[in-house]
Amino acid sequence: MSITVNKKAFHDYFVEEKYEAGISLQGWEVKAIRAGRMNIKESYVIIKGGELYLIGMHISPLATASTHVSHDPTRTRKLLLHAKEISKLIGKVERAGYALIPLDLHFVRGRIKLEIGLAKGKKQHDKRADELDKDSKREAQRAMKERVR
Known about the structure:
Number of helices: 4
Largest sheet: 7 strands, antiparallel
Strand order of the largest sheet: 1-8-9-2-7-5-4
Oligomer: single chain
Number of strands: 9
Radius of gyration: 19 Å
Structural class: alpha+beta
């Protein structure tokens, strides 16, 4: 069950591989995510010390959140992956010039997971070509729908 999708990532990047990672969260963050109070649009993943970290994901605390805990909405959160997957990602990001982009936040058996994509940036002409492809597909679907009627 998807919580939020980063549509901007597919507009700005060619996503080649996808990985599912766990996120190290605090209790108030889990409650806020379940309430839908988060944003992954401007977030990205970095590699530091052989570990992956999510930077820029904004989680707004609920009004009923505890007052004795300091709430940092954009704190850096650690991502949980197997060591083999992390080493593979480190190699591709450092050698091949890929970027790690958060794509989708979803539930798996009650746990919150983040789908990250190994992606290369698009140039402006690539974005325009994708827009034209989408428009032509949409027009073809409309024409087929009218022909059926």
